[in-house]
Amino acid sequence: MSHKIAVVGDKDSVLAFKMIGFDVFFASEAGEARQIVDKLAKEDYGIIFLTEQLGVQIPETLERYDELVTPAVILIPNRMGTNNFGEERFAGNVERAVGIKIM
Asked: Most exposed of 13, 26, 37, 71 (fewest Cβ within 10 Å)?
């Protein structure tokens, strides 16, 4: 079974992902991002990349998908750079999974 990959974020940050075949969805505020992520999760998306700047605004949505195998919601920096929220979140998920802090 294959799954699709989506990228959600502001247009300037995510448009380039379309060139490598990812489905791209534009969102500039928390409400839009939450609706798009929830919609994609109900469809056949295995990975949803979301800009960190939007991820910070919808922590409850991210936590809901942390408990599921798919979709994996992965935070990425936007065109302005990182705020380290994605890295911290990833490290926390790894620590929960293996029981020790390895990062």
From this structure: 26
- The rounded distance, in Å, linking the Cα atoms of 94 and 71 is 17
The first and second tokens of residue 31, run together, are 């409400």
Q: Measuring CA to CA, which residue among 69, 75, 90 is closest to residue 3?
A: 69
Q: What is the pTM of this model?
A: 0.81
R_g of the chain computed on alpha carbons: 13
Q: Are 85 and 17 in contact (CB under 8 A)?
A: no
The 3 state secondary structure assigned to the chain is: CCCEEEEEECHHHHHHHHHHCCEEEECCCHHHHHHHHHHHHHCCEEEEEEEHHHHCCCHHHHHHHHCCCCCEEEEECECCECCCHHHHHHHHHHHHHHCCCCC
